[in-house]
Design brief:
CATH topology: Rossmann fold
Number of helices: 10
CATH class: Alpha Beta
Helix content: 40-55%
Radius of gyration: 17 Å
Distance between the termini: 31 Å
Order of helices and strands: EEEHEHEHEHHHHHEHEH
Strand content: 15-25%
Largest sheet: 8 strands, mixed
CATH superfamily: Alpha/Beta hydrolase fold, catalytic domain
Number of domains: 1
Amino acid sequence: MFGNIKSGIIPFDESEMQYVVFGKGTSSLVILPGLSDGLRTVEGTKLILWYLYRKFARKFQVWIFSRKNTLKSQITTREMAEEQAIAMDKLGLDKACVMGISQGGMIAQWLAIEHPKKVNQMVLVVTLSRQNKTIQKVIGHWIDLAEQEHYGKLAIDNMEKYYSDQNIKKIRPFYWLIKKLIKPVSRERFIIQAISCLTHDAYQELNKIKCPTLIIGGGADKIIGKIEVQQEMAKAISKSKIIIYPELGHDADTKKGFHQDVLDFLKKN
């Protein structure tokens, strides 16, 4: 029923990394999720992940990775990319298509810069290459809420910022339930990941990315800013294509046709 979905654990010296894999394709698609991974690892959401990305399962064997369960203080997205490279080596994933979403896109950039042989094609979804006032304000506020353990307020503010105006109306009636259910597995892990977003800066090295790259953004993104962040990356990455869904925000991957846009790009390159 669930496309042979399996979960696994990759041991590290001081921690471990969880992953979910499904699909019958002959090629590998590595998906790196966003900051939501700081709230709950892929192990806790594997059926949701299968549902979200099942359309890729016919062409690809889909691998979705969490960050390590225990993260060192002040770890950077660049260091997370190094850990991702180690995880891929341990699983024998020598070369893959890589899709990074939000914070996962920040990690994907460094993976393509530092380990170009591992990344055959790349898709960067609702992400940026360097800081701006929008992301600093939004994620800074989330860190403050997490430090005060205001998890209900954190969840609601996340959704208000994440969803576009056309989609948030469908979510608001369930806020009462969300407030009761949302609590991070580890407050420290979420805060460490959030801080890494605020220190990410790969802009000056984007010209080292040589793989074909699809950049997808929402024209009304309240977390990372408007389309200028995607346009900036597209100019710096030589083999890039950009798609903007003007009516959507950080929820651009909910667009009807998103999966097909990604598949069309991966098939052509």
